């Protein structure tokens, strides 16, 4: 592999840890605001294999926060656009781009992989819960993004166990349902301790298991994605 483009990374972490990253496989579920940036940073770290999953296309309302969303990409597949970008970053990467919505009934098949780490950037409750429970049952390493919407302060982002989250209605909802399944802790999440602006919430038609959404500022999903990617990269380069 050509390591020249990773010279600054190697300068920081050394060749041994860099080679560990090159040998790893990361699965990213969801190519929205969080997942698209997480996938970008995973690719730029030198990770040698990735699987990215999303069945959605770019909508004009995505443009304020999602990497694939440009004035010129409306209607285009998010996962296909991201695949092209990732291969442009690292032409040597082994990339599997799955153009499929992350539905509960598809989770087991998506997780039937040799991925060394899973990034859960799913923003709908039912598929997210199915993914978390399945990944934990399979003893897969996973980091899960909680709610980035309704917030503006990136200094309040934390990496913590799901049991220690607070001021996040989305995490509270996930935590409640996991407890019913007997899961109280053991899930690493990216969350925010900032109270969301409840006046910014809108209700939707429930398409793709999503009944509501908060207003979102440009940088917060990217910050969540970058934080999730950092969890994965820091753990993988040490193991």
UniProtKB/TrEMBL annotation:
<dbReference type="Pfam" id="PF00899">
    <property type="entry name" value="ThiF"/>
</dbReference>
<feature type="domain" description="THIF-type NAD/FAD binding fold">
    <location>
        <begin position="11"/>
        <end position="236"/>
    </location>
</feature>
<dbReference type="InterPro" id="IPR045886">
    <property type="entry name" value="ThiF/MoeB/HesA"/>
</dbReference>
<protein>
    <submittedName>
        <fullName>tRNA threonylcarbamoyladenosine dehydratase</fullName>
    </submittedName>
</protein>
<dbReference type="InterPro" id="IPR000594">
    <property type="entry name" value="ThiF_NAD_FAD-bd"/>
</dbReference>
<dbReference type="InterPro" id="IPR035985">
    <property type="entry name" value="Ubiquitin-activating_enz"/>
</dbReference>
């Amino acid at each position: 592999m050509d390591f020249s483009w990773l010279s600054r990374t190697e300068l920081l972490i050394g060749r041994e840890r860099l080679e560990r990253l090159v040998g790893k496989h990361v699965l990213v579920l969801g190519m929205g605001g969080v997942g698209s940036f997480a996938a970008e940073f995973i690719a730029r770290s030198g990770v040698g294999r990735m699987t990215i999953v999303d069945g959605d296309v770019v909508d004009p309302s995505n443009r304020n926060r999602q990497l694939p969303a440009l004035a010129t990409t409306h209607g285009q597949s998010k996962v296909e656009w991201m695949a092209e970008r990732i291969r442009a970053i690292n032409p040597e990467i082994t990339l599997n781009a799955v153009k499929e919505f992350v539905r509960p009934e598809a989770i087991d098949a998506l997780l039937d992989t040799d991925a060394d780490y899973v990034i859960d950037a799913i923003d709908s409750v039912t598929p997210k819960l199915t993914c978390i429970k399945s990944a934990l049952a399979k003893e897969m390493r996973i980091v899960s993004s909680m709610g980035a919407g309704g917030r503006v302060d990136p200094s309040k982002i934390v990496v913590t166990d799901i049991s220690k989250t607070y001021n996040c209605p989305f995490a509270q909802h996930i935590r409640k349902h996991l407890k019913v399944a007997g899961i109280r802790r053991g899930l690493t999440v990216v969350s925010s301790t900032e109270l969301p602006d409840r006046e910014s919430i809108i209700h939707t038609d429930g398409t793709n298991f999503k009944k509501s959404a908060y207003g979102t500022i440009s940088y917060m999903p990217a910050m969540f994605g970058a934080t999730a990617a950092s969890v994965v990269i820091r753990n993988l380069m040490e193991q």
